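FAQ
Q: What does a multi-component entry look like?
A: The components come first, one per line:
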Amino acid sequence: MAAKNTNTIMLEILQFPFMQRALISGTVLALLLAVLGVFVVIKKMSFYSEGIAHASLAGVAIGVLLSWNPLVTALIFTAGLATLMWFIQKKTTISADSSIGILFTSGMALGILLMSLQRGYQPELISFLFGNILSITNAELILIVVLSVVFLIFLVRQFKQLVIIAFNTELAEASGARVALYEWLFYVMAGVAVVLGIKVLGIVLVTALLVIPVAIGKIVADNLIWFVIASVIAAEVMVWLGLLVSYYADLPSGATIVLVGTVIFILSMFLKDNAIK
Amino acid sequence: MASKPILQVKNLNVQLGGHDVLRDINFTIEPGDIAAVIGPNGSGKSTLLRAILGLVPHQGDITYAGKPITPRQLQKIGYVPQYFEFDRTLPIALWDFMRLWQKKYDRKKIGKLLDHFNLIPKANIKIGNLSGGQLQRLFIARALLNDPKVLLLDEATAGVDVAGEEDIHEIIGHLNDVHKLTVIFISHEIGAVYDYSTKVLCLSNKLVCFGATHQVLNKQVLADLFLDTHLAAVKHGGKKHKHHHA
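Then the predicted structure of the entire assembly, as tokens:
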């Protein structure tokens, strides 16, 4: 009976094209952000992803002001900002904390300033701040899927190189790895993926899809492969269960996805013996 | 007939933060040498190894087998840095860790190296759960994965107990004997330098002595190297210290 109910619910949901787009984009982005999140956590770059998400507001604002697709302008702006961030890290002695703090609050401030030039209610701003997976268009879906597939192919093919660089830059460089190139690619990919994720969770919450699944993976896994697999499973459960609950309880999808993740995280802490000291 | 140098350093100068860390360093290392690098803290020992690996900007020529060191040649140089911090909660098992650094997965080789360093019983546990000494042994095993011709050890036995330290020296001695592995190691243990090295480089931001260990290293050299630097530091700092390391 329960199974039949679940099937009925799923069929009902899948009737709507906006739900189909939401589920496809959510599935693909959950996969991408969970895999990227593994590197983000090993490299201790959570603050970077949080910061670049906020700074992307300037890119969104440019799109709104110029009447271009804000997702596209945010992607271009973020790729540029990620490159600038990488350059500062490589060529100056400014600490990562300071440069991220300065660049990304400035990006957010620029976004607010540009948005203030546009009069009246701005639904797109609200959609980018808090996410609206149900508003994803066909063109955006294609963009999300194509970029995600390209990034995932790169991440899988260069998995070992990226892990050793994330683990210890100096050791990687001493073993002949092309650290500078890979780091730049990773900065740009992480920035672009975060912006894609903004459509699902919004600027305020997007980091959750990078951090929560990986935190769950870290608790339940004992080796690297399981770490990646567990993180991906956690991310997919977050998105699918979050969407189902938000659909039936009529709740905001982004916030529901994050809170589902929080519940899974807490459960995994209690289920794994050594997770609590 | 003298063999062709495997590593040659000519007129090496390194400046960091406006200070001369290494000045006009010249030396050659032959295949099969075990060279110890000694000197007080801040004398440029680690910087010398990092310059060889291209990790710090430098002036001068450093060649491996007569050619400038490229990323490809770096694969022939194994490196064990001083202990470094990493997230100990990461689910990376020992076996995973070794596998990451191998170009082509060779299960047998990983097993053999872990066995050499008594790490087989720990192969499936997280690297974050290893003790300091076990971690050092793992890092040395990692450095030997791709059959290096030269091994650079930056205080690699720090944190390892006496028995473990002897094991490490024995394994390196064996690799040196059988496979002609060239080793350059930084050490504060003058006893180990006498026992295991064939050559010695004394650093005090410049090369104070270089040559066969038993010919070059004597009480006067050690006193000059450690005591003079210590006295200079005391004079500079205006503080009185009653003990010294040498």
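Q: Is there any commentary attached?
A: Sometimes. For this entry: The beta strands of chain B are 7-16, 19-29, 34-38, 59-64, 67-68, 77-80, 150-154, 182-186, 199-203, 207-212.
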